[in-house]
Design goal:
It is a multi-pass membrane protein. Keywords: Membrane, Transmembrane, Transmembrane helix. InterPro entries: Bax_inhibitor_1-related. This protein is mainly alpha-helical and 260 residues long. It is built from 9 helices and no strands. Helix 3 packs across helix 5, helix 4 runs antiparallel to helix 5 and helix 7 runs antiparallel to helix 8. It is globular. It starts with a helix and ends with a helix.
Length: 260
């Protein structure tokens, strides 16, 4: 239980060290005011990137622009952003918004699948809307909870997980590569889906602590840090959406069998 209590910070009495309290949720003393200001900039930029991503997804729904080109454009924008000097702030912010817009367009085909679950005159009907909103809210709640947990934990407490997560990401890559060459199974796809969700949720914690630690040492590049968190958010959202789509398909199949 000591590890659990350290996850939420120190409390006033020895008895409360086995859990958490409301006071522990307000304990940001380990984060200096400068770093707190930096985190506000990072999360503000992240919110702007999410809005741009939503615009990109909407543009795909209107004009069907999402695909390989937008994916390559997104990767190119990321490389361009990372190679741009930090003093060109306006250019880097524009590149981040372009990355988010292209990423949203690339996710657009998956959103089309969600819309087609309950098509009626080409409109976004309640079932599809429920799936999309639930996936986004679930992702936002998970992202917020794990980010706050990383902020409340002791400095560098979870950075050691970075090596394990990198190994997990490598496993995902090789599994995907092998399945593309030799063909995959439903069980393998399900493992990749849930294991990938676990890996990227872990990256939310590690990346948040890494950003805080870098900021303590003077790295206040909020654009790059927002990009890091945005990629984590997008990866978690895609996997949650796929899981919800799979569950919706199973429910529809069960309803059809009952009707027959």
């Amino acid at each position: 239980m000591e590890a659990f209590s350290s996850f939420f910070g120190e409390t006033q009495s020895s008895a409360s060290r086995n859990g958490w309290s409301y006071d522990s949720l307000k304990n940001f003393r380990q984060i200096s005011p400068l770093v707190q200001t930096h985190l506000k900039q990072v999360y503000l930029m992240l919110c702007c990137a999410l809005i741009a991503s939503a615009v990109g997804a909407y543009l795909h729904i209107l004009w069907n622009i999402g695909g390989l080109l937008t994916t390559l454009g997104c990767m190119g924008s990321i490389v361009w952003l990372l190679s741009t000097p930090p003093y060109e702030e306006q250019k880097r912010v524009t590149l981040l918004m372009a990355t988010a817009l292209l990423q949203g367009a690339s996710i657009g085909p998956l959103i089309d699948v969600a819309i087609e679950i309950d098509p009626r005159q080409g409109l976004l009907m309640p079932t599809a809307l429920f799936i999309l909103v639930s996936a986004f809210v679930g992702c936002a709640v998970a992202f917020g909870c794990f980010s706050i947990a990383a902020m409340l934990a002791k400095r560098r407490e979870y950075l050691y997980l970075g090596g394990l997560l990198s190994s997990g990401l490598s496993i995902l890559f090789w599994l995907h590569f092998a399945s593309s060459l030799f063909g995959g199974s439903a069980a393998l796809f399900k493992f990749e889906l849930y294991f990938g969700l676990l890996v990227f949720v872990g990256y939310i914690v590690v990346d948040t602590q890494d950003i805080i630690e870098k900021a303590h040492f003077g790295d206040l590049d909020y654009v790059k840090h927002a990009l890091t968190l945005f990629t984590d958010f997008a990866a978690v959202f895609v996997r949650i959406l796929i899981i919800m789509l799979k569950n919706s398909e199973k429910q529809q199949e069960k309803k059809k069998k009952r009707r027959n």
